[in-house]
Amino acid sequence: MSSSRVQITSEDGSVLDIEHVPQPLPIPEPKELGTLRRAMRDNPRINLSPEAIEAATGVFLDVPRLVLLATHKNGVDGLGTFYAGATALYFLEGVADAASLSTVLGNPRLSHLVNAPTSPKPTGVVDDSGQQLAQLRVDFASPAEARALVEAVAMGTLRQEGADYSDSILSNGVMTPVEAVISEAHYDDGSPTTYIAGLYDGISRAVSAGRARLHDPAANAAEMVRRVATSFGDTFNASRAARRRSYIRDAEQYNAALERDGLSMPTLRQLQARRIPLRLVVGAVISEDAAPDTLPAAIATAQSARHISVNPWRDAAQDAMTARRMVGHLLARGLISQTFATLAAEDGLTADDVNVLVADFGLERHSVCDPDGRLTPLWRALLIVHTLTRPHIFVEAKRFIRSDRGFGQVRDERYAGFLGVLIDLPWRAVKPDTTDVARRAWRNGGALTPEVFQNWTPVVGSPESVRLLADDGDHNAVTTLMVLAGTALMADAVLTRDTGSKVDDGRVPYRATPPALLSPWAATAHGRRQAQTVLETFDPTKAGGTGEGRSVQADYTYLHVDPQGRPIPDGAALQTLREGHLFEQADPDRSAKERRKLRAAQAATAGRTQSREDRNEQRRIDLLDNLGQAVSTVKNLITEAADFPNPLKEHPMGSRADWQEVRENVRALEDLLIDVRPPAEPHPGRTPDADRTQT
């Protein structure tokens, strides 16, 4: 890019300020393409088929630079690396022809919004020697079906609010790399296989570049969207040679126009929007015994972890992605049925699906379905918990999570978190204030008590009938009651994760994780009476809770009942169930003892003058709190920065001077911390890591 700055009048008469005048489009020489092709074939870290290498070399424009990156010499090359769980992905990053990329893989990010046919599930590709390659396979009935999908995805993406970046691209070009993998489309009608770079991230940028490039002032918005979609369909149907010829023809035409006439709007559109930064998957390290869906899962992980912005997705979003892929993996291995996979994904069970589930689990339809014949959300949750904790499924599911996320181990309480993001699907939209609290409780063990991992069968019936069976010693009924009520209590943030602050402020008498509390709670008659009341009150269509804290806007609360199941008066009203009541019902003796100890400690503290050591400890706590707030604020600003300069007109950090002032304050704080650094301990103490203990 040149450092010169120009102003140019657009077709509608507005003035564009172009800070960097784009350079002419590069035209690769055939000899350079041959050199890149050989470098990719000879690189041991690039495992693509010969046809895929041809497709990859045909996409890139800055070929001399890529030859250097792809050349593997003395064990070194210039490939980028991303670890998606246990799978290492290798990328070749350069400038590509935007018109050579395809939406054949659908739009993973906006799949729930884009009104387009669902893309067939991609699978891995294995060569003749049995090695999995770094490319994907997608099966269609015919090229016409594939083209219809490609065009529908492009059209649906452009129609989404905020997904059109064409104005920004016209001024600045595409600045953030899109990500793609070589995809081979196979057809049932015997048509030749199509090899093309399939986008899995940055689709909005790619289709926006098409809109900027193909702009016609005489066409309306709907017509422009149709033209862009058609161009993606034409690209998909064209051969690799035809795509390369089309690019060279356009590059020569507009480069000549730039030299002859200077920068005009048609030339600007081509120079800014025809090239696009691309990160292309060219290699992958996959174990020989890996499942065929390992590479698609790894690419989905890369898409969710390294997103359109520099921020990774939230933990809950990554957990949800992993959980959905886990269900797909278990289905592919034959460990769960298609009906259960539909149930877990909340894809909409048909009446026949419900009949199959009722038969498989030996349930009574009228007890587990609502009047419309749909499985109730709580019973859906119980079936998910029961199925995914069966030993043979549980072991394979944890193995997949370790591979997908790169975890050294997955403890039982962490495994529960992946169930939690599946369980809350029916009510997360109506319980927004408590959903995050509930997810943290599930990541702290949720309803996965030791009894849940044992051999048990769900017991069907009304809350009262199940409670009566539990009172008679039926362990199946006890476990059923505990899972159902525990799920409801966590959904409404009555039961939350284990933290020391809950004890310090008197909300609970002692520390316990959700499963460590639920197990003894359901073992007491008082706890089972309370569980019955909880199940009779829970409403998956409304926000519930305690009416305080996160659930202050609750539409309903739970009544606190005595051992006979009668509501406990609170003056003229009735007592609302609080988390501390659950602890008292689970172990009244320990609760009373711990509360006496806490009151005694508070009384002793109140009568003692705060020492300098105590004040300094409080200052350290306040400092960490303030730093945490600062980090959270900066993360929010980074998220906002993804929308600059369009639609956000002002950068979230203000001017460069504002940013510099903040940075100088941070550096000054770092210098001050050096001044107050304590001396090194000669023999640092070692404390046992409680998290190493398996629940």
In short:
The chain is an alpha/beta fold and 695 residues long. Residues 600-609 have a biased composition (Low complexity).
Describe, in plain words, how this protein is organized in 3D.
By secondary structure, the protein is an alpha/beta fold. 50% of the residues lie in helices and 11% in strands. The protein has 27 helices and 14 strands. The strands form 4 sheets. Strands 3, 4, 5, 6, 7, 8, 9 and 10 form an 8-stranded mixed sheet that branches. Strand 8 and strand 9 form a beta hairpin. Helix 1 (30-42) packs across helix 2 (50-57), helix 4 runs antiparallel to helix 7 and helix 20 (475-491) packs across helix 23 (525-537). The longest helix is centred in the C-terminal third of the chain and has 30 residues, at 612-641. The protein is globular.
Blueprint (SSEs and pairs):
Elements: E1 6-9, E2 15-18, H1 30-42, H2 50-57, H3 63-70, E3 80-84, E4 87-97, E5 101-102, E6 123-126, E7 132-140, H4 143-158, H5 166-172, E8 178-187, E9 194-201, H6 203-213, H7 221-237, H8 240-261, H9 265-273, E10 275-285, H10 294-305, H11 315-332, H12 338-345, H13 351-361, H14 365-368, H15 377-388, H16 391-405, H17 412-423, H18 432-443, H19 463-471, H20 475-491, H21 500-504, H22 514-523, H23 525-537, E11 544-545, E12 556-557, E13 569-570, E14 573-574, H24 579-586, H25 588-606, H26 612-641, H27 656-675
Parallel strand pairs: 5-9, 7-8, 8-10, 11-12
Antiparallel strand pairs: 1-2, 3-4, 4-10, 6-7, 8-9, 13-14
Helix pairs in contact: 1-2, 1-3, 4-6, 4-7, 5-6, 5-9, 6-9, 8-9, 10-11, 11-12, 11-16, 11-17, 15-20, 17-18, 19-20, 19-23, 20-22, 20-23, 22-23, 22-24, 24-25
